[in-house]
Amino acid sequence: MSSSSIIDSMNPMYVYTAAFVDELQRAGLRNVVLCPGSRSTPLAMTLASQERIRVWMHVDERSAAFFALGMAKRLALPVALVCTSGTAAANFLPAVVEAHLTRVPLLIVTADRPHELRDNGAPQAIDQNRLYGTHAKWFVDMALPEASNEALRYVRTLADRAVALTQAVPAGPVHLNMPFREPLVPTPDRSLLPLSQRDPAAWEGRSENAPYVRVTEARGGAVYDSLVERLLALMSTHERGLIIAGSSDDPALPALLALLGQQSGYPILADPLSQVRSGQAEDGCVLSSYDAFLRIDSFVERAEPQLVLRFGAMPTSKPLLLYLKRYCACPQIVIDGNAGWEEPTQLASEMIHADSVSLCRSLLASLSATRGQNEEWTATWKRTEAITRQQLQTTIQDFAPLFEGRVFTELAEIVPDGTTLYLGNSMPVRDADTFFWPDGRSVRVMGNRGANGIDGVVSSALGASAASDGPTVLVIGDLSFYHDLNGLLAARLHGLDLTIVLINNDGGGIFSFLPQASYPEHFEQLFGTPTGLDFAPVVQMYGGTFQRISHWHDFRVAINTGLANGGLHVIEVPTERASNVQMHRQLWQVVGEALQARESNITKIKKSVGK
Question: What H or E segment, with its residue span, contains residue 545?
Fold first, then answer.
């Protein structure tokens, strides 16, 4: 049975497994040592149908593992080991230990029972999570099989990442644990996703047998030089490109990215934590309102990119993610200077591990001589940015209730050069994405966007203040503030300066934007979680000043006072969750109408010129 017939006619388990095995061979895997068993049936049958992979059958798992070890050591290439669930997997351990100590690239794939059959007496089920401990470079308990675009992107990305990691310095074993539910044989299923809704790259793989994600280690030498030449060639033939700037702590990178955008004509979609928004001239290619205008279908439909270069982590914006998913066939290249894997979208066509600063400098040194610019492409994005910002700014001024997003338009005008702006998670970081436009001023924007938790943010901001030469401002929601009230003691103990903007909507404001809000019966109890707390006495207990504002004039005065006087200042902005959602949606509507009107005018002008 061929891989294509599995995808066309079999059940979701086999579609998923076929994509995984297909991607293994695309990543360069050519040899698999397979041990017999029942739970591994989907893997065994799919591997047997893959013509580019040779299957070596071994009955004894311990011997099989050492056989694979010797083969991988001699070839200096990854070899895969596959077995069923239970103690079969445990018998691989001696060879895995040896591979770890001698840096041999082994990919161990163990079949497993689904989660509902673990730790409850089911036969042939042991705890296989991190079975090989520190002897495996990386472990993943994989998702259960399903036949969706998202699942197939996931499993292809995982296959490429795993094979690449077995060879990354230092080489060694990687362990993937694959759970399967019965039936384990390829029975037909008529509920597969219709052809019209499938992402071809996820279902069939990329063209010309290319890996779904190409992994490039380019720390220097000939590999680095070849990478630069290849990227320059791509940029020279793809005029409609974009640069996406995610969170970054490298002080040299933001200015280089801004230059790369200007020189290439590629608009830069800059996350607030990228530091690229700060200190840039207004006529540059750095865009900061894309979270608003990428919600507008009429713009997205005519803004198909040919190439996307992303530096750093994926930005916060969900509309940006949906935009990238819409154009998933576009080459999306992620440049990450770390050895990790900052790619949660499963959309990247290449992961480049190289020093971002050096790579930008190399591209800038040669870029001007190799390409022209698509002025209309660049102008469209810049014009859309300008219209969006104008509409947002104008409409916000007309809101009678205090609007949470206006906190950031006000701060963008108030805070001086050298300010550190610390962002709380949930709504503050998202509103900053759309409404913080620090034109021409250098503002360091920080946040805890690793685990994205709402705990410890006050203490983190105070720690940043202790290490900062300039003023520090924290914008935080009431639940996150409550989580870390004890952190305020550090301000008193160490004489720290921190101005806190406390957005108090009495609960979890972000849930009002999510589908949970459509189920009002238990919404407040489970998601809104109002506390009704008065924070003034607590702030005063820790030696700070507290002010609850009711007008934006008072907000500006309070911020300036806090920055001028130093110490701990908490400025509470009381808002209402339901009206905040309505104001956000009104803004998206206004932006959409303005962009549609602009497009209509351009169409009329073109028709008039044509006559």
Answer: strand 545-548
pTM value is 0.89
> Consecutive 10-residue runs of the chain (611 residues): their mean pLDDT?
51 94 98 94 94 95 96 96 95 96 97 92 91 97 96 97 96 97 81 86 93 90 92 94 93 93 94 88 80 96 97 93 96 87 92 94 81 82 95 95 97 95 96 91 92 92 96 97 96 97 96 90 90 97 97 97 97 97 97 90 65 55
How many helices (H) and strands (E) are present in the chain, helices listed first? 24, 19
> What is the 8-class DSSP label of residue 120?
S
Q: How far is C-alpha 240 from the geometric centre of its chain's CA atoms?
A: 22
Residue 599 placed within a domain? no
Q: Beta partners for 568?
A: 498
Cis peptide, bond prior to residue 170, ω within 30 of zero: yes
Residue 554 has a CB neighbour count (10 Å cut-off) of 14
Give the whole-angstrom CA distance, residue 149 versus residue 501.
41
The strand pairing partners of 422, in sequence order, are: 446, 474
Same domain? For 280 and 137 the reply is: no
| Alpha-carbon span 252 to 260, nearest angstrom | 13
Cβ neighbourhood burial of 597 (10 Å; 0-12, 13-18, 19+) = exposed
CB atoms within 10 A of CB 356: 20
Residues 306 and 428 both lie in one domain? no
Amino acid letter, residue 113: R
Q: Check whether residue 352 and residue 249 sit in a common domain.
A: yes
How many structural domains comprise the chain? 3
Cα 413 from Cα 433, distance rounded (Å):
16
329 touches 201 (CB < 8 A): yes
Q: Which long-range contacts (CB under 8 A, 24 or more apart) does 237-240 make?
A: 238/306, 238/307, 238/331, 239/265, 239/306, 239/371, 239/372, 239/373, 239/374, 239/377, 240/304, 240/305, 240/306, 240/307, 240/374, 240/377
What CATH code is carried by the domain that includes residue 305?
3.40.50.1220
Residues in a beta bridge with 499: 473, 569
In a domain, 611, yes or no: no
Residue appearing with tokens 């239970």 = 86
Whether the Cβ atoms of residue 179 and residue 91 lie closer than 8 Å to each other: no
Residues 542, 261: Cα–Cα separation, whole Å:
46
β-pair partners for 518: none
Hey, is 351 helix, strand or coil? strand
DSSP code string of 352-413: EES-HHHHHHHHHHHHTTT----HHHHHHHHHHHHHHHHHHHHHHHT-SS--TTHHHHHHHH
Buried b / exposed e over 169-207, threshold 16 CB at 10 Å, is eebbbbbbbbbbeeebebeeeeebbeeeebbebbbbbbe
CA 280 centroid distance within chain: 24
